[in-house]
Specification:
mainly alpha, 2 domains, 5 helices, 2 strands, elongated
């Protein structure tokens, strides 16, 4: 199915009052009109509820009972951003070393080995 241009989309919108219910199924390459049940399901998902309103759940089945005492510690760790971002001062030191090597004031290990030989 070829994609419609903006003019054709505008004409479809003006002719069909429920144009907003149409979605394109890219897997099957078809246009699908959402039913009221589909819209209710989407609304329930957006609210954070169970998608199927007829689903009966037993509250006792959802009680969290950890088998191990240390399981809460596994997920409680928090790594701040500063552990992953290099320090500003380390960056400045490295830049200083690079500048010294380029100017010849500092020698690399390979250069020192060559001088010894």
């Amino acid at each position: 199915m070829a994609e419609k241009d903006e003019l054709q989309k505008f004409i479809d919108k003006s002719n069909d009052p429920n144009w907003w219910r149409n979605i394109t199924d890219e897997l099957n390459n078809t246009e699908v009109r959402l039913s009221r049940a589909d819209l209710d399901m989407i609304l329930r998902i957006r609210k954070g509820k169970i998608a199927d309103k007829d689903f009966k759940h037993d509250d006792e089945a959802f009680i969290y009972n950890p088998e191990h005492k240390d399981i809460d510690k596994l997920f409680s760790g928090f790594d701040p951003k500063r552990r992953y971002v290099p320090s500003k001062w380390e960056k400045l030191k490295v830049q200083k070393f690079i500048k010294a090597i380029r100017e010849g004031r500092m020698k690399t290990l390979d250069e020192k080995r060559e001088e010894r030989q």
